[in-house]
Amino acid sequence: MMHYLAQVDAGTIERKLAELQALHPGLGICALLPETEKAKVPVLQAACAQYKVPLVGAIFPALVRDGQFLTNGLWLLCFEQMPYFALYDNLPAETEEAESAAEKIASDVRAQIDHVPDLTLFMLFDAMVPNIGTLLDTLYLHLANRVHYAGANAGSETFQPMPCLFDSSRTVQNGLLLMLLTQHKGAILEHGYHTNPHTSYATSTKGNCISQIDWRPAFEVYRELVREHFGEEVTAENFYQYGVHFPFGIVRANHHVVVRIPVMLAEDGSLFCVGEVPANSVLTLLKAPTVRTVETLHNLHEGLKKLNGDVAGAELLLFYCAGRRLHLGAAMATTELEAFSGLTHAGQVAGALSLGEIGGSTVQGYPLFHNATLVASRW
C-alpha cells in the first residue's frame, strides 16, 4: 500500500493513520520525505507514536510520484505487519572498522533470515557514507544469495551533511536504515550507458576520493580526457557545471559498467565521487547524451516482468538518481518518469530522487553501488 499526502501536518497524518490502522491493526510505515519537508519529521514521529505505529524513513532531494518529481508532500509506504528493521548511525569511515561494523550488521540480519525464501535486504544509506561499496562487499560475504539486495542513498543534493534517516524516536546521519522485505523478489537496476573504448587506471584512491589516474593528478587527467573525447574544456571554476555531464564508468571484469559521478574537486586536484572507487579500477569516461532511455526503460520493464510477472496495475517503487536528472536535464528526466509509468502501466509509482542506488549485478547477484541509474521493484 502506498499513500501520498500532499499536506504534511499533524491533522492530515493522524487522519490517514487512523484510517489505515482501522483496516490493518499491525500497520507499519516507511516514510519518504523531500528535503524541503525535513522539519516535519518530528510531526510524523509524534503522530506515529500516538497511534503506536512503527515508523522508519528517509529524507531525499525530491519525491517521485508517477511521472513527476515533487518537492512537497510525503509518501507513506505501508505494511500490514511491520517487517524487521534496524537503524545504524555514525558508521566508521576506516576500512577495517567499516568491515567490522558490516559483520555486526550481517550477524543481526542473519538471525532473521534462516530458511525464509524470497527476502529482500532493502537498504537506505546516508549519501555521505564514503565506503558503501566496502559495506556491501562485507554484507555479501556473510549473507551471499540468501537475500536479494536493493536500496538507495538519502540526503541533500548539495552533499552537505544532514540527518536524513529516522525511526520512531531518532533522526541520524552517516548511517544505514535496513528492512527485510518478505515475499519480495528484489529490484531491477539499469543506467543505459555504453562504454568509451578508452580506459585509464585509478592508481591512487581512498574511499570515494581519486587522487591519481595513470599515476598523475586525477583532475589533470580528467581535463585531458574530456577535452580529447568530447571537445569540452573543464576548469576548476566550471567543474561543478561539467562534472555531472562527464561521469566515470568503472569497467568490471564482466564488462558491466558502474557509474561514478565526480561531485567535488579538492585543491590538490583530487576528485571526490558519489561512491567508492577501488584502487586500480579500470576507468572509462562517459557522456550524458550516450544514455539510451528507450533501452534503459525496456530493460527495467522486462526485468520487472521476469521477477514478478505482469506488473500492470501494480504498485511500484522507483528511485531515480539525482545525478542522472542533472545531466539529462529536468525535462528529459521527467519524460523518462512518464515513459516508465506508461510502459509498465503501473497502478502507482512511488519513490524518490536518490543520491546513489543499490542493486544486484544479475538476478540474485552480487550487490553493487551505482550512480546515474533507475532502480525499480514491486512494492
From TrEMBL:
Domain FIST C-domain intervals: 218-361
Domain spans labelled FIST: 25-217
Superkingdom classification of source: Bacteria
SMART domains for this protein: FIST, FIST_C
InterPro entries, alphabetized: FIST_C (IPR019494), FIST_domain_N (IPR013702)
A Pfam family it matches: FIST
The name this protein goes by in its record: Uncharacterized protein
